[in-house]
Specification:
mainly alpha, 250 residues, 0% strand, globular
Length: 250
């Protein structure tokens, strides 16, 4: 009897199937609601609700952001901008945008839910197949399984803007990354990008007043991109040192 006979393999995959179904339905039915125009049209109502029910608004926002990420729904960028728009100010002297904290919290919770669904449904099967395979696939898994490599690679896939967020959520689940490493590297790794887009969201009031759209390409401007690339290099440093030592036989 296989390890996956209990519970039933279909039941193991049910959460992942549910995510795929909801993602497909959400992409069709919610695309007009999770958009910049929707935020523009409802901004006054959102601000009024926030002012009257701050704590409830924060909890509802984090829950909604987590659902967007967990179900891979369209609108994660709009959600981040909304977090900056609604929660981008804090008492004078506070060094961190609270919207960035709420954005990162929602994204991390959603990523963990997707990670767990993917691992429960597919992780064990794929890990066994990787262990039994030869060649490149096995070497990739062995490299990620190394504790030092794992931390560095997890931070890298979070920091590099070119890596899609859902890919960075799924791949670690399929190669046996421990949950706590995934959670820590997700929370810290997405913080730089979240702060940038939260700052953009915090300035949406002026953008709305001018009838313009926000500049989402700001993260690729040198003043923003170079520090993030510096963090990428720092995260990759253990991998580079290990490679150099290996070549030198140290």
């Amino acid at each position: 009897m296989s390890d996956e006979s209990s519970p039933n393999p279909f039941l193991r995959r049910l959460p992942l199937i549910g995510i795929v179904v909801v993602a497909a339905l959400g992409a069709y039915f919610l695309r007009d609601y999770l958009s910049f125009d929707a935020l523009r049209q409802n901004r006054e109502a959102l601000l009024a609700f926030r002012d009257a029910n701050y704590l409830l608004c924060v909890l509802g926002f984090i829950g909604a952001y987590a659902a967007i990420v967990a179900f891979s729904l369209p609108g994660a960028t709009i959600a981040t901008l909304t977090g900056g728009f609604l929660f981008g100010s804090f008492p004078a002297g506070f060094p961190v945008l609270p919207g960035a904290i709420y954005n990162v919290a929602g994204a991390t919770i959603g990523a963990i839910l997707l990670f767990l669904a993917a691992r429960w449904g597919l992780g064990q099967t794929l890990a066994k197949r990787m262990d039994a395979s030869d060649g490149v696939v096995k070497r990739i898994k062995d490299g990620i399984d190394d504790e030092g490599n794992q931390w560095s690679m997890l931070f890298l896939i979070r920091l590099v803007p070119a890596v899609p967020f859902f890919v960075a959520n799924l791949v670690p689940a399929l190669v046996g990354v421990p949950l706590y490493r995934f959670a820590v590297t997700t929370f810290l790794g997405i913080m730089p990008g979240a702060v940038v887009y939260t700052s953009v969201g915090a300035g949406l009031g002026e953008v709305f007043a001018k009838g313009e759209t926000p500049n989402l390409g700001i993260i690729f401007q040198p003043a923003i991109l170079l520090p993030i690339l510096g963090l990428c290099l720092l995260a990759a440093l253990p991998l580079l040192l290990k490679a150099v030592r290996g070549k030198k036989g140290l």
